[in-house]
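Handout, section 4.2: multi-component inputs.
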Amino acid sequence: MNLNDLQALMGEAIEIDEYRDLWVVDLGNTARAAPLLGEARRMADSLGAYLHYVGPADSGEAIALGADRVHPLAAAGADAAVATLAALFANAKPEFVFLAADETGNEVAARLAGRLHGGVVLNCIALRLDEAAREVVASHPVYDGAHYLDSAVTAKPQIFTVRPEIFPMPARDSGRTGEVEPVAASEPEHPSRDTGPAAHTPPATPLHKAARVVAVGRGGNDAATVEVARLLAAKLGAHFAGDRSAFDSGWIGKEDIVGVIGTEIAPDVYIAAGIWGDTLHRAGTEGAKFVVAIHPDASAPIFNAADAAVVGQPKDVLPRLLALL
Amino acid sequence: MRLLVLLRQLLDPAGMLVNRKAGKVFVNREEYMINPADKRALEAALQIKDATGAEVVAAAVGPARTEDALREARALGADRAILIKEDVAAPAGRFYEALCDSLGDVDLILTGDSALDTGEAVGPQLAEMVNMAFLGNAVQCALEGAVVRIVRRDVRDATQRAYNGVEADLPAVVTVTRSGPTPRYPHGGAIIEMYRDPEAVEIMTAADLGLDDSALQPAVVERGQSFPPEREFGKQMTVEEIAERMTP
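Output:
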């Protein structure tokens, strides 16, 4: 019985949503895309939908990790991936698409949303499935991670890119079965061309805007250790600075003093080596997102503001850190 | 040669206070600014204008206050400014697609890589809607005849410090990151002139662009806010763990 007969029989219009199934797209970074299979598998089970995997990973492996159908796709540039996936999704009409959030993933996801007239949420850090509404509410950071917005996509398909290390690697189940369907590769209409390595010197960032800062203080430091800290800063591409005691010791200039007396900073990574961390120093570094504190004295107040605390002499710790990075 | 620069006006985070414990964002000063990445895209466009004499058109979608952002763009050197006076919740891509049709012969569209307040990326979506080439995450952008060349961070490079050149034929869409060219400052006299000139910003509505209600349905809706956990006492880590955390 076809749908028209059924409708005539039931006397009502039956709406069949042609958008269905969940897709995980892997653009070559399988280590980041595989954890998405586990989360998407859970969603697929509660929605009663199939889970598809598009990517370069071994099809048996993708099935073992949770996929029902595998569409092998060799890793290629963003242009080729968009062309192939757009052609594939125009027929398959996915309900949900998940990608790993990196530069290429975000670009491909947003371009697919434009091509398919869907909606996209980039850089998600949490996904919550609303089964009744058949939508995913995704948390994603805004204002550089100051807070998160919970957004839902009302257009179809719903496309999400997910930050790495949000979901654990799913357990392998080698007893699972699935199908493999080949994908027809499409050529991009407006390809971009790679012209090879290019020179670019990022403009020198002032201390208050630096994304990474390595700062020294007098606690357990000597001139030789300060040189190691300077090397560490160069290796990390970080700004080299210090607290007032470092200035008094002549290790840094006056413009490189960190704290309320000096420059207030809010870097992504702040390494404080041998800094005691008085109130004014901590107030001046409040905005730092990841603070590594190294100090010989375990009662140093800098540890109260630290994400990673190492109680030890900077002259022991810094060379080891430098060697490991 | 016509360049279209897409701007977004958003709340200045300097006037906001995020209270993680209360789970609220307090807006102390309601001040607006141009999305930082968009401002750098405008600078890239103005540099192309300086080099080739191309026409720069700045455009924005938003309520009446968005005029300020466009007047700033005019004072910086944009030749025209178009405000599409509509609710910002509607998908901006649809408006810009219609705007490209009504302007005709747009050769290059520049915008920021993502919006600071919503994380939305208009550039790549628009590129597919108007069927143009797309180059993302540029830190430098230049025109050579009918080819646009950008420099961007090499995504294959693990140290994240190598750069790579990419080029495409016009017409194209280019997004610029916040490491793009440093924006210039507007001349004080130019700002006054733009605020005195009633014609400085052209105002359009969805009806002018031939868009109906179906095009104005938002594709992404906000369902609430959440907050990162409060900072706790530092975790003791070994040097190896720290090195692992910091190696990308």
